[in-house]
Amino acid sequence: MSLESYDDCWLRYEPADGERRESYRTRCENVYASVGSPELGAVRDELRRAMTGLLEREPHLWQHPPRSVEGFLAVGTPDEMEMIADSVSTDRVAALGDGGFRIRSVEWEGAECVVVTASTDRGLVYGTFHLLRRMANGHPIDDLDVTEEPANHERVIDHWDDPFRRSVERGYAGPSIFDWERLPDLRERYVDYARLLASVGINGVVLNNVNTKIPGRGSANEFVSGKAGWQLLTQDGLEKVAALASVFRRYGVRPYLSVNYAAPMLIDDYDTADPLDPDVEEWWARKAEEVYDAIPDFGGFLVKADSEGQNGPYDYDRTHAEGANVLARALEPHGGRVWWRAFVYADHDDRAVQAYETFEPLDGEFLDNVTLQVKNGPIDFQPREPVSTLFGAMDGTDLACELQITQEYTGQGVHTCYLVPQWKEVLDFDTHASGEGSPAKDVFSGSEGAGIAGVGVVGEDPTWTGNYLSQANLYGFGRLAWDPDLDTETVTDEWVRQTFGGDPAVIDTVSGILHDSLPATVDYETGGLGLIHMMYNGEARLENHYDPSPAEWPGYHGATEDGIGIDRTSGGSGYVGQYHEPVAETYDDPETCPEELLLFFHHLPWEYELADGTTVVQRLYDNCFSGVEVVRDLRERWQALAGRIDDRRYRHVAERLEEQVVQAERWRDTLVAFFYEHSEIPDEHGRVPLTESNRAVPPRED
Ligand code: GCV
């Protein structure tokens, strides 16, 4: 625990094992690190903290290469440090992209050294964290020869934090960590957040919610709802952002802001925000100048336009490209970027088709400093969805994949649901855009303006993430954004070892729990055949999204007495036709469509036979039941760790798994009752109970 009493997450730096510790001490007890830039200050601070933990000795920091010691760690650029220039190929280092680094074990004047080098200071930060990760994982450091560069240029966390109420939309870990009322006063927690982010390679943070206006509260001019994000664009607001930027800068993290499309009206009483109006254009240009005067390394603006009540170019009959480009022109002279979200839906019978229909025709029309940010699936972060059709459809536009780290639909701050396997599926999905072997991840790493964005998960809770095990999702997001080729097992193993130490029984158990958690959630929350939106929404604005309530959403699952699922085939909504061949053909036919997506693409009779002869309804029952069994098993596996990990963390997770079992049972009972009510086909094992308490909640009437 840090002084402010919150968790260190994966940066615990527990003492290394005896044998390993000697080797680490030889090479790292003395540190020769360059000084100067803010990033180097962060490197030195981290090394001091980490080595004190790992080596159980405070390191000695040198300003020149020490000659009286057995070995040392050197961190710096070859330009600044001759000893480093002697130890690595300077050409190779110079060729590294921004953030890339090189680590080598070398002998230098008889001393056993480790060299961490890069061509940029940010690269030194990442290289340092990489070395520390290896040490925290207990790996040897006497024979290192590592070169890494981030695959994706932009690796950003999007906070859905309301700066003035300090709440977090879809946040399950308490209030926002950003205390805007007290800013520009700084807190130690900002530094620790920046450390966590940089340690996994995140290089951007959007500080405020994309919902800059509360839906349903009238037009921009009537905006009354409580001073949301747009106020950060005023002088006072920018001073606060600049203060945060001064912390993040040391860790190579750039700040971004979500802006309301009608900002000229909200801030300066303009009577239009029409992107083609010259006064509006000038307003954005002036605003960008003000922002960059205050924060020279500002990243840019994120915009949710024409979606769920937010203002946008449609208010003026302009396209999204026209809308985005006016902001892009304003940011361009300062090196800034517009992140424009593709999350739009309205008035369409099948919401899945809309993002593609809106944006694909605009391919090539966005300026170079616009990134189109697309959610991983066509609907909305469901436990399982097919991959968005826009990936692979817009090669004239920089695309970013938006993933949701916070668990809006996957058990919120309570359920253990490890999302790395879901994200791997998205990143590895073969779009076939340029024939076989065109994985989606190549789209996000394909250019400087592309990347990966994740909806943030942290809050004031001492665990940061609400559920302790959800820290693994934040960790995994960063690691995959840096290197989407990492396999799930590697990411899991790294996180577990750094978080819980080296006890093999603990590593096996925690890794196994994480591994089995997503399939279980998919099973009890959906029945596992591609159904979506089975959750409770509640009265307008309650939007619980945690409890089960399938009857609320007939348009999303299509359950009728003759069958279930939505027909998105060529004969149905046609969504399937947005994929390249042979994906389209495969999904179009229920015989070839992968079972886990079957009911997303097809409306099928309840007694439709699956490949193994089981009927659809029976498989739905079976999956709901087995999902609960797995969660019970997860709970027991965790209970076997009593006494093997500290009591505080043990109890925290144990309590949440208890709750998850109860909640999974509610999901199961509600869903199977719902399937039974519509199909009138009993479970062949006689397990389906139908009682007043699990009868599906009736649809909302608004
Ligand atoms: C920020 C879903 C969520 C909303 C979210 C929206 C979005 O609808 O429930 O909370 O709003 O997605 O991504 O813009």
UniProtKB/TrEMBL annotation:
The keyword Signal does not apply. It holds the Pfam family Glyco_hydro_67C. GO terms for cellular component: extracellular region. Residues 465-687 form the Glycosyl hydrolase family 67 C-terminal domain. Keywords: Carbohydrate metabolism, Glycosidase, Hydrolase, Polysaccharide degradation, Xylan degradation. GO terms for biological process: xylan catabolic process. GO terms for molecular function: alpha-glucuronidase activity; xylan alpha-1,2-glucuronosidase activity. Residues 9-131 form the Alpha glucuronidase N-terminal domain. Residues 135-464 form the Glycosyl hydrolase family 67 catalytic domain. The keyword Chloroplast does not apply. It comes from the Archaea. Belongs to the glycosyl hydrolase 67 family. This is Alpha-glucuronidase. It comes from Halococcus hamelinensis 100A6.
